[in-house]
Write a structure and sequence with these properties.
- The protein is an alpha/beta fold and about 210 residues long.
- Helices cover about 35% and strands about 15% of the residues.
- The chain has a single domain, classed as Alpha-Beta Barrel (TIM Barrel).
- A 7-stranded parallel β-sheet has the order 5-4-3-2-1-7-6.
- Strand 2, helix 2 and strand 3 form a beta-alpha-beta unit.
- Helix 6 packs across helix 7.
- It is globular.
- It starts with 7 loop residues before the first strand and ends with a helix.
- It comes from Thiohalorhabdus methylotrophus.
- This is DUF72 domain-containing protein.
Length: about 210
């Protein structure tokens, strides 16, 4: 089963958990296997922001160490991202990221995405990182317009079960309407992000069975 079909993509920013107290990874798991193990549990992953474009070896690692239905989000940050958004030729980056294929689900731009972006990445969601990223766990009033929502939830620590349950209900409703939803938790220290992602994923699965 392709886990992307639900339209609900839940994960964390990065897969390395400093001072992890969550118990997510088996104690004897080699570090080189962590990314693959992560994508057996969560198909969605936000790649940590890069100060410069990734090299071919890094892109190959992302592809080879993730399952076939992985959903990856990449932020084009720093000066190189701003130059691309301002009109620099995106062809070299498009060739570099080509091995990811449909795994590359989202590109987050440092400003309004350039009009040429869709031609180079036609199956990828392009977001304005300054305007289209949601940072509150509670859904806004009413239903958003058709399209995708993208949550990047840092929080001071773990989110309350109540707030994640409300978010799960909202995501399931949107998923059933055929709308795309991305939620990435960023407080990886201590494993908080993993614990929140696990709770939200379980809540979504429970709501989906109702």
């Amino acid at each position: 089963m392709d886990r992307r079909e639900s339209g609900i993509h839940i994960g964390t920013r990065g897969w390395v958990l400093p001072e992890d107290a969550s118990g997510f990874y088996p104690e004897d798991l080699p570090e080189d296997w962590m990314l693959e193990y992560y994508t057996t549990q969560f198909h969605a992953l936000e790649i940590p922001p890069l100060a410069e474009p990734p090299d071919a070896e890094t892109v190959a690692f992302w592809d080879e160490e993730t399952l076939e239905d992985a959903t990856l989000s990449l932020s084009l940050t720093g000066e190189w991202g701003r130059r691309l958004a301002a009109g620099r030729d995106p062809a070299p980056l498009a060739r570099l990221l080509e091995p990811l294929g449909d795994k590359l689900a989202v590109l987050v731009w440092p400003q309004k995405p350039p009009t040429r972006a869709a031609a180079f990445w036609p199956r990828t969601l392009h977001l304005d990182g300054t305007a289209e990223i949601l940072t509150e766990a509670r859904p806004g009033p009413g239903e958003r317009a058709p399209g995708a929502v993208y949550y990047r939830l840092g929080g001071p620590g773990r989110y309350s079960p109540e707030s994640l349950d409300r978010l799960a209900e909202y995501l399931v409703r949107r998923g059933r309407a055929g709308r795309a939803n991305f939620v990435f938790f960023t407080a990886v220290q201590g494993g908080n992000a993993i614990l929140d992602a696990m709770h939200l994923q379980e809540a979504v699965e429970a709501r989906s069975r109702e």
